[in-house]
Amino acid sequence: MTNVLAAATIPDAVTFVFAAVICVVGALGVVLARNPVHSALMLVMTLFGVAVLFVEEDAQFLAAVQVIVYAGAIVVLFLFVIMLLGVDQREAIERDPLPAQRPIAICLGILGLAEVLLLARGRWPTGARSVSGALGSPANNVQLIGRSVFTTYLLAFEVTSALLVVAVVGAVVLARRPRHAPGDDDAPLGAIAEHDEDLDGPEAADPEATDPEATDPMVTGPDATDAGSSDAEAGGAEAGAGAAGAGEAGDGELAHSEVTGP
Amino acid sequence: MTVEASWYLTLAAVLFTIGAVGLLIRRNVLVMFMCVELMLNAANLTFVTFARRLNDIAGQTAVFFVLVVAAAEVVVGLGIIVSIYRRRPGATADDIHGLKG
User: Fold this and answer.
1) B50 occurs within a structural domain
2) Contact A135 B92 (CB under 8 A)
């Protein structure tokens, strides 16, 4: 244990231990934090630790991409969704529909880890060396990855572009509000109808309220206002056609009051 | 000389286990999604470690593709989560059982 670490130089060993501790603490924080925002920030910590390990293993380009894409884009997307949905409250831990699932999961995880470590002890698998190009020096890491992506793995790269297009289209389709969803409370047409009703109601009731001297305020004024508002409500309860009906009803009420007023 | 590859692989196994256990014990869909990202990172660390051990650039290229696929996966997954939360706010993974027979 110590002789393996002692085979490395002191700065390398210190860097590895430091980054490993950061990674493990961050990973535990992701799992154990009650607040999803804290989980996302702990995930950033783990990603930075993994980026340090990438630099340590001469993968400079991947370390930069890890920080830019993962910590800069993906975690920010997570945080946007958390803030947008307002789910940054504590998880109800006491209401557990699957009792004893958590202890079993923890035991399974520890068993799986122990199995992997026991099976792989002393004989980590090996393979052919430098099949698709040597690693080279750290100076031309980007050049080597670029050559590998655009020659050996060109088909995979093209398929990746198709995958990204499909993902973008899928996200747009998923996140779009449904136009005519049955039983959907916040359909856009309902909102428009309510808005129309709000506009029509005071217009229908205003002439009665502004000149109470022309008519009898005790009888006609409140009566017409009540009738107009109730008509508008009845129209607003229906969909877009109902809003038009409410407008007509309001106009009819207005004409009626103008006829009967003087 | 750098640290032995077995240490990196052990660390990757530990990270993967933490992610898998977190995926099993958490109920918040977003946190479960972050645990999937943890597991992907553990796999990336393994890829880079074997790339260095076998002196082969293909491991790092594989990590490049894993990053792209992870980005696409996050976009689609968060879209699904947003549409779920729009229908039923505050839903956990236990509440999403519409396909249960």
Assistant:
1) yes
2) no
The beta-carbon neighbor of B94 closest among A39, A97, A131 is A97
Structure tokens, B26: 């958490």
Q: Cα A85–A68–A41 angle (5° rounding)?
A: 45
pTM score of the predicted model: 0.72
| pLDDT tens per residue across all 101 residues of chain B | 578 888 899 999 999 999 999 999 888 889 999 999 999 999 999 999 999 888 889 999 999 999 999 999 999 999 888 888 888 777 778 777 777 76
Is it true that domain A7-89 has CATH number 3.90.1150.10?
no
Q: Which domain holds residue B76?
A: 5-87
Alpha-carbon dihedral sign for residues B20, B26, B32, B34: negative
Q: Is residue B18 part of a domain?
A: yes
Q: Which residues of B touch A101 (CB under 8 A)?
A: 24-25
CB pairs under 8 A between A and B: 252
Amino acid found at A6: A
For residue B65, the Cα-to-chain-centroid distance in whole angstroms is 14
Of A40, A106, A149, the CB nearest to B61: A149
What CATH number is attached to the domain comprising B49? 1.10.287.3510
CA distance B66 to chain A (A): 10
Q: Based on the number of CB atoms within 10 Å of its own CB, is A28 exposed (0-12), middle (13-18) or buried (19 or more)?
A: middle
Residue B15 within any structural domain of the chain: yes
Nearest to residue B46, comparing CAs of A73, A112, A107, A62? A62
